[in-house]
Acyl-CoA synthetase
Amino acid sequence: MSTPLPSFAASASFADVPPPAVVEPETRRLDGTVREAYVPPLAPPVRRGSLADLPFDNAVAAPDAVVLSRRTPDGQWEDVTAARFAEEVLALAKGMIAEGLVPGDRLAIMARTTYEWTLLDFAAWAAGLVTVPVYPTSSVFQTRLLLQDSGAVALATETTAQAAMLGPELDHLPDLAHLWVVEKGHIGSLTELGTRVPDAEVSVRRGMLGPDSLATLIYTSGTTGRPKGCALTHGNFFAEVDNAIELLYPVFRATTGVEPSILLFLPMSHVFGRMVAIACVRARVRLGHAPSLKPDDLIPDLASFRPTCLLAIPYMLEKIFHAARAKAEAGGRAAAFDRAVSVAVRHAEAVEAQQAGTGRGPGRGLRTSRAFHDPFVYRKIRNALGGRVRYAICGGSPLGHHLAAFYGGAGIDIFEGYGLTETTAAVTVTPPQRPRLGTVGWPLPGTRIRIAADGEILVAGGQVLHGYWDRQAGGVVPAAPDGFLATGDLGALDDEGYLTITGRKKELLITAGGKSVAPAPLENWLRAHPLVSQCMVVGDRRPYVTALFTLDMEGIDHWRRMNGRHPVPPEQLVGDEETRAVLQRAVDEANRMVSRPESIRRFAILPRDFTEWEGHVTPSMKLRREVILRDFAAVVERLYAG
């Protein structure tokens, strides 16, 4: 059995449990600069048991507690109690055992964010298996690569089409002995098959697992090379989620009359979404799954589920903001919206200063202004997200000071974080009541952050992977033999231990003049513009820095309508002088952040967006620079012609 959390996460009622005391980072300096920050763990390490025990622990501790909700065919939400979830996990685990799967076998899961994903995950663990996420948008080649490398003996797909896609590849997958399709009712078939397996067999397999047992192989996105299988243990997840639950108590603790709930719509194939799903089960926070990010699908899900917290990436929060402003502008309320934004930002900054002990907080006039704008602007944004959202956990890339402050002032506190697949998601996170806008927070409790001489971020902690999967070497190859994982990212710690991300080591551009340029700050700034979908800065071994832009067509169409222009296809905007003039002003503004050698001198507008299908971006919207440079080589050469 797993070790229960010592505080609110193991309680039947969270409302009366006081928040933990703020534990500030311990910092170390070198040559006057903070080079290391460490926060002691808030949760004790788990010494026995595994994630497989969580459904059964919950069923004993609080059998009637609602731990999940699943979407029914008629669009309603059906609550799933702890007792029922444990029954379903047990039945499915027995079905996997009946099919002949043995402890240590790898089960790949290829599905969108659905209830069945979480059910398969926990059932596989209960059967002693190791799960391997596969993005449902993966190509045939990518899927075959992951299945071959992991040695998966079974694959569960969401749809018949996904299974059929692999038909021609089966000869190349000799290890794959089982193929189950959710929409064909195979989960029910497995459950029926498992009735001949005694419950005790599952108990025996669960008893064989411990914190050091391998839980999952999650493959990196491969933005800088071939995807690598990150071997994460049950203990890695416990170190991550237990400390996250304790630190982010507003997210995982009930308030008066409002039970916490999270609607998960980010891919469960990504470590971020997976970690939060596990944290919800661990803390018995009601979890829902939304399989589609399309507004026409997601907005009704938000309205009916009414979550108190969202998981998001900056790209999503930027688009929500731009859509709200475009709607206000279309209604002739752009000036009022902009005033409301200014008030929200100033209010959040005043609150931040007060919590840091450097200011008195929002004055009466600012509080009155915020209250005035709330029903006309802030509440509408909150209502669009379901009406009860109070918090958002944001990761993937920096959100930026201005947007984080706006959401905070609008009544949605943003907990920004930074992490990797190798670190089981977050290694830093914004601490409640101690935000530092524009940073990614402090080290997660139990984590040590070190900045190397060249600016690279090094990480040590219980959530850091034991190693990478190497089938040819016969298993897991250690990734951080000295205890510190080299992240490949560049950053800086301030005097109080807050981390700021400044770029990625392998993405540093070295101009022909020898100037080092980190593209991320410029790209993040420009991507936040309402007319921009994506931006990639170019300049490695070139005489100066340039940029490639793709357009946000919803933003472009709105802007053209507001200026009396008809919508046009994106290919007609490549040379449009008005569009270029707007982007030139954005570039000029961004260039103020950097020195002259780092500034963008020229740019090009591309006729189409970067897409995951064409390999330009990962499923989490990270740029695949080599692919983009290859596909748009002629455009880049024209930027440097003459």
Remarks:
- DSSP finds 20 helices and 28 strands in the chain.
- The chain has a mean pLDDT of 91.
- Residues 238 and 543 are 49 Å apart (CA to CA).
